[in-house]
Amino acid sequence: MHLQELSSNNTILNELSDEELIGKYHHFGDIVFKISSGFDQFALDQYEAHMNWSLEKIGEYFEADRAFLYQYTEDGNTLSLSTKWCKFPIESRIVHYQDLSAEKHGWLFSKINQGNRHFIFIDDLDALPPEAHQEKEMFRENNTRSFFAVVLRMQNKSIGLMGLETVRKKCMWTKHHLALFGIASGVFAQALGKKWSAKKLLSETDLMSVTLNTLQEAVITTNPDLEIIMLNRAAEKITGLVEKCALHKKITKVLQISPEKRKKFRNIWEDLEAGADLMEIEDLVLTDKWQNNKSISLSVSSILNQEEIIGRVFVIKDITVRKRSEEEIRSLGYYDGLTGLYNRAFFEMELLKYNSPSFLPLSIVIADCNGLKIVNDAFGHEEGDRLLCKTAQIIKDSCRKDDIVARIGGDEFAIILPGIGKADVEKRIVERIKKVCVQEKNLVVSPSLAMGIATKERPQEDINVIRRKAEDYMYSIKLTENKSMRSSMLMSLRKSLEERTHETEDHASRMRTLSTELGKKIGLNEAQMTEIALLALLHDIGKISTPSDILNKPGKLNDDEWAIMKKHSEAGYRIAVSSPELAFIADYILGHHERWDGKGYPEGLKRYQIPLPSRMIAVVDAYDAMTNNRSYKKVLSKEEAIEELNRNAGTQFDPAIVNAFIQMLKAQNEENSVKSKL
Questions:
Q1: Which NCBIfam families is this protein grouped with (predicted)?
Q2: From the centroid of its chain, how far is CA 395?
């Protein structure tokens, strides 16, 4: 596997509690802040040491054995290993691959040049294409088992490659790792760009110009009247000003501050005019010449001649990337990665915030997504994820703009609705959700929710008690509606099976009739007759998880396709176990392709180890398949089918069941013959 998109199913966040997740995100935020601050503060001669420290922290956080940073040479055809970190006692990759050339490693370079901030993820060397033989050799020489890298870009140009490797074990990094690693890569790209810019500027001859233009911070110098007399290149870049146009203009007129921060900024001018000679302030927002908002920090100091102020120096630092990284980390901590709704931690926090008399009446809805386990077992977790995402969208779209909608568990949602009572929630929100769920036709099963409502109407009521009431109501409704919901789910599954296999209602009717007649012939009791009738309808329910191209292939299946087809018995078993209405026939579904001689599947059971209903369905299904149209076999006459059953009695089929079934068919023929003569 390589260059794949990292994804998650609906259980990925359940591996850690919300508190643990938030703790990890906060820890990562601290690391990124220290890395970013270090690159901002340290001089060029401290760059390498801080870069080594930064790679070590990133490598340790992602549990890697190596972390590395390659940067392009001037010709753009070679990646040179700039900095590396190895976990003791792992051998450094610098031993074997100091430089990577486009000529020798063409496959890797082609992937680097694809798109913007492209992620490269490899966890199976054997899956690499033939043209990646040089890369495969490189990874093997370095004992690499997992490789994860991101292309560093600046101004839409690739400037390097930053990545992680594991040696001791494979590591399946998730999409959350990808998001965090992407945040860190932005900081490293900025630092690499800063290093390049600094080296380039050092070649200039004017020492003062070099000093000022090496800085990433904007430097603007004014006279005592705050009229601009000089600004460096960074100031031009950050503000959009051009030096020759800004000269002799008041800085108060050319520095545009966003309205929400204007009052705070005016205080700075007042302080300066009052004689303040030093100040520092963060969390300002600068609007540049192109109307782009940038987060900045500003420091102002006075230029003194003895005790007389002869000028001011304004230093502006663009902290937009850092602020964006902090926001992204906070966002990851409070949002559900699958649905995009708020998560449980945020819900708990907001519930406390809204627990105020000003928000009364305050209603809470707790909702549970019905049938998620059956959908996961029947169609796979990808379809289960689609059900969850669609359900989340329906809930959010049905609520008001200011309502808080969260996913608080695997299949559980919660809504905080301020300023609305229980009756209105039922009429305006819950009924709308139910209506839209019923109308949804693009999923294998329509979304269905059990929803409990409780409302806090008086300040002295405990919000946690209200929440538990909503949960209790939800569970009560779920219990009341459970049977009808599951019946509806089974009807949907049966319909999906008919659509995917093209098996008609006639087939289902024949199977039920033949099976119950056989049951009567061998003396089944009433409970067993119920079992065999239901098994006749749903013995192949596991085929809804089998790909359609295999189910409906006109010719013979190859070995790989047959291996996939044979999994439907186990899939059907999992579906049946998930539903109380089907659990009692789960073992029969699992065993309906076992053989009398023990050569069947999936467990290789033989003779009386195979449940009786499974042995019966095997005979009935084989007869119906032989005597009716199937895409892969010609139709046999009843006599030919009976001859085939006799031939396989004692090997594929229970001989006693075959004998009883044939006697039943003959009796039916005789009865039909008599009726036709009357």
A1: GGDEF, sensory_box
A2: 19
Q: Which residues pair with 70 in a beta bridge?
A: 81, 161
CB atoms closer than 10 angstroms to residue 231: 25
Same-domain check for residues 280 and 155: no
What pLDDT does residue 495 have? 73
Q: What is the pLDDT of residue 460?
A: 94
The CA-based dihedral angle spanning residues 103, 104, 109, 110, taken in that order and rounded to the nearest 10 degrees: 80
Burial 80-108 (b: 16+ CB within 10 A, else e): ebbbbbbbeebeebeeebeebebeebebb
Residue 312, strand partner residues: 222, 302
How big is the chain by its Cα radius of gyration, in Å?
35
Contacts of 96 (CB under 8 A, 6+ apart): 138, 141, 142
Using a cut of 0.85, tell me whether the model's pTM lies above it: no
Per residue in 143-182, pLDDT tens?
888 898 998 887 778 888 999 999 988 887 777 778 888 8
Residue 579 tokens read as 């539903």
Map residue 594 onto helix, strand or coil: coil
What's the rounded mean pLDDT across residues 531-556? Answer: 86
Residues 6+ apart with CB under 8 A from 510: 624, 628
Preceding omega of 459 cis (within 30 degrees of 0): no
pLDDT of amino acid 115: 59
What CATH number should be reported for the domain holding residue 561?
1.10.3210.10
Q: What are phi and psi of 161, to 5 degrees?
A: -140, 125
DSSP letter (8 states) at residue 430: I
In this structure, how many other beta carbons lie within 10 angstroms of the beta carbon of residue 40? Answer: 18
Q: Among residues 242, 72, 44, which one has the least CA distance to residue 159?
A: 72
Instruction: Please give the mean pLDDT across all residues of the chain.
Output: 84
Tell me how far apart the alpha carbons of residues 19 and 333 are, in angstroms, rounded to a whole number. Answer: 9
Task: Tell me the average pLDDT across 201-215.
Answer: 60
Residue ending a domain, among 493, 526, 553, is 493
CATH (domain of 219): 3.30.450.20
Answer whether residue 328 is part of any domain: no
Please check whether residues 146 and 29 belong to one and the same domain: yes
Q: What is the DSSP string of 380-428?
A: -HHHHHHHHHHHHHHHHHHS-TT-EEEE-SSSEEEEEEET--HHHIIII
The token pair at 367 is: 């909702």
The answer on pLDDT for 16 being more than 80 is no
How many alpha carbons fall within 13 Å on the CB side of residue 236? 12
User: What region does 143 belong to: left with phi over 0, alpha with psi -120 to 50, or beta?
Assistant: left
Residue 96 pLDDT exceeds 90: no
Do the beta carbons of residue 104 and residue 134 sit within 8 Å? yes
Q: Using CA atoms, how far apart are residues 653 and 643, in angstroms rounded to an integer?
A: 13
Domain extent, residue 477, equals 342-493
pLDDT of residue 7: 36
